[in-house]
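ok so i was messing around last nite and threw this chain in just to see what happens. nothing serious, just curious
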Amino acid sequence: MEFRREENLLLGLLGADDGSYQDEGIHGISASDWDSILQLSKRHSVAPFLYQRIKRLDPGEEIVPEVYQRLRDIYLYSAALNMRRYHELAKVLKILKDEGIPVIVLKGAYLAGVVYNKIGMRAMQDVDLLFKIKDLSRAQKILIEKGYCQPDSSLFLDIHWNIELSYADLNVEIEKVWERAKTADIAGVEVLVLCPEDLLLHLCMHLGFHHLFEFAGLRTLCDILETIRHYNGQIDWGQVRHRAIHWRVINLVYLALLLARDLLSADVPDSVMEDFKPDEFDPRVKEWALEQIFRVKADTLSLSPYFWQLWRPGSFREKATSLLKLLFPSPEFISQKYPTPYGSSKNYLYYLVRLKDHFYRYGHAMWRILIRDKEMAILAKQHIRDLAMREWLSS
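result:
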């Protein structure tokens, strides 16, 4: 894939070490280039990170003042939002601690507060919390009663019982993830966080399975970059590889690390890349991932992979299974998407609500495919390709 000028410039700035930005240097970037870089950084949700990066590289002396101020404003806004989120998160964590419910803080809240070391550098929309399945119902009940776990709450909590919920055909041993968890101070409360190796695997899995490298793909690559920097020399790459193979995500981890190293100069040793590389790696896989990261998303439908599975070649049994997974997911999943605790009798009611929601959400899209709408045919072809790539990532 051939990058546009602003993409090359943004990648160089994001991946540069302090004082090491070479290429054209800060002074070689024109006013129009800076404006393009700013817009691109906002689209990829990395503008706050970019601000801190260029602030260290060159504290505003060679940057167009208006652009520098806009980046600074974005960073300060991100910091203010995150401060409010951490204030609410502290209340949540104290409630759980008082109730004796262990919790692992995932992704953004841990990354922004500890890995990035400046809470404004890493934008986040919600807070991901991991519970043991035996504690899931009680934790959800308490948090719902306190007004959390709803999109309009002061802090939206994304509840997990495994570290990757968007792709079921994995072999993650969640009990061992809990055994390896470390303690950290988050929002002034001592809680559990993933160990470095599991954190790195989680970021790779979230990038590949949850987002298929789209949406905030570049932000997640920055997460991987900063995680490797933060745990400088402490990551046991042998354990990362061992778990990646056991969890059936070795192909995905190799691709994510390859992108982080090639795009952002992440410090992944050559020996590690060689050990992780699949026996037969098709370069077109990397091209597909780059297209996913950098293309402007035109598909605003955001439909489930199980929906697109219905339109690919396969047996009636396979398609029926996909339809059932789409309409009748696990009770845990229902409790995550609707305001009801896991195990509650209301779960059955929300299955009916889900059927109604999906009729409105998928009915029109299905009709457009059945009448061979050209736009939907193109989208179906693209998503069927993406499904094949998802299967490769977990093979």
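not much to say yet. The first strand starts at residue 104 and ends at 106.
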